């Protein structure tokens, strides 16, 4: 078996290995961890104090990361290429212009490592931090392959939620919009979002009359289209599965995804990309991908920042209180933090709790904030049980920019980009370390920014050990806030 794993932080020469103690007065640690809050003081460290944070900076590409040997050079365009330089002979000129206009000039780490492999036709598993720019990496591959003027489906992006689908579609459309002063126009309808919900029927007939070049679809919608023979994968050149671990873990989606991948495996001339910030047991996954022929044998695993799966500008805190004090504690935190925008994650209501007629946590939090919070942030809700129009309306508000507090279930935890987000609150604890990672990853999403963001878990004392497990697994340190 010929699977290549490029775990950059393991393979690259480690440039800096720094151990920082938040009690030290070094400027780097103090700039990272704000020390004073109106109502809270950091009094206690929850983990051993001798190793507080391990930051590993891996900025030099290794020869092994490239398909051809690296020739040592002092030329900056080789060691530090721009996105234009990486994409030059692959992506249409107009799109490069547009990309720069939008603000994508320098590649993020995962883009720098992945794009040469993607352009060379290799199947790839993109495994990199939340907010590290995986979406742009696979969209650039798609635009290097498809002819948007042609009426046949050449690329499919599969996503687990409608919200993520809307976002990917938006970025895909922004990239092919006419650049200022540029020439030519894209075929309208070259990109289609095939997401569950109201417009699906209309889209199906449109799909038949004039197939789009690129389809962004939820797994279930795509499976339905295939089963009803409204669509075949025969013309496909590239398939991307975003948040792949989530889909494989979802009892609702996994069998549909397997059907799609099995059907796709018989296509010729195909390229496959899987993406996520978390791919537990990735070696097993890669083996299965090859065995099931979802990918070619030389699939490449691009693992960026394997040691530090969450952005290093993110700092983690927790506060312990009684269940009855949780809402009040949340309010105090919001008042002292004064977030630009924040998400309050709450657990999904169990079937049992629904049957007994209890209110879901989301309603409790929303109702409490609407009566008790008197700040300027707009209070919004996003949860599974909302109808599609209300979900879309909340997302639209969020996408207008900062200035909101979004009360959400984990439906908002995967892939959705909230660039203005500065604070995450876990009102209910995440169920797994992976859930923690994706919730926390909704902040710090401006790749080249140095703004600090925080994630705060409000827990009862019995939940402390669960958080400790997440700290060990994800290798971060959580500080206790004492009210
Ligand atoms: N090269 C770049 N330069 C500047 N900004 C970028 C670049 N690439 C991506 N971004 C921005 O970074 C943010 C995060 O990107 P993106 O949503 O693709 O991350 P991701 O890796 O898919 O995250 P997740 O794992 O959470 O899905 C977006 O706002 C995007 O516009």
Tell me about this structure:
This is RNA helicase. Its EC number is 3.6.4.13. It catalyses: ATP + H2O = ADP + phosphate + H(+). It is an enzyme of class 3 (hydrolase). Pfam families: DEAD, Helicase_C. The chain has 483 residues and is an alpha/beta fold. The protein has 2 domains: 8-46 and 313-482, Rossmann fold; 50-303, Rossmann fold, CATH 3.40.50.300. The chain is 36% helix and 18% strand. The strands form 3 sheets. The protein has an 8-stranded parallel sheet, sandwiched between helices. An 8-stranded mixed sheet has the order 3-18-12-17-16-13-15-14, with helices on both faces. Helix 10 packs across helix 12 (254-264). The radius of gyration is 23 Å and the shape is globular. The chain starts with a strand and ends with a strand. Bound molecules: adenosine-5'-triphosphate (ATP). Adenosine-5'-triphosphate (ATP) binds next to helix 7.
What's the topology here?
Layout: E1 4-7, H1 8-11, E2 16-20, H2 27-32, E3 41-45, E4 53-57, H3 76-79, H4 83-87, H5 93-102, H6 109-119, E5 124-127, H7 134-145, E6 155-159, H8 162-176, E7 191-194, H9 200-209, E8 214-218, H10 219-227, E9 238-242, H11 244-249, H12 254-264, E10 271-276, H13 282-291, E11 300-303, E12 314-320, H14 326-337, E13 342-345, H15 351-355, H16 361-372, E14 378-382, H17 388-399, E15 404-408, E16 423-426, H18 433-440, E17 453-459, H19 464-474, E18 478-482
Parallel strand pairs: 1-11, 5-10, 5-11, 6-8, 6-9, 7-8, 9-10, 12-17, 12-18, 13-15, 13-16, 14-15, 16-17
Antiparallel strand pairs: 2-4, 3-18
Helix pairs in contact: 6-7, 10-12, 18-19
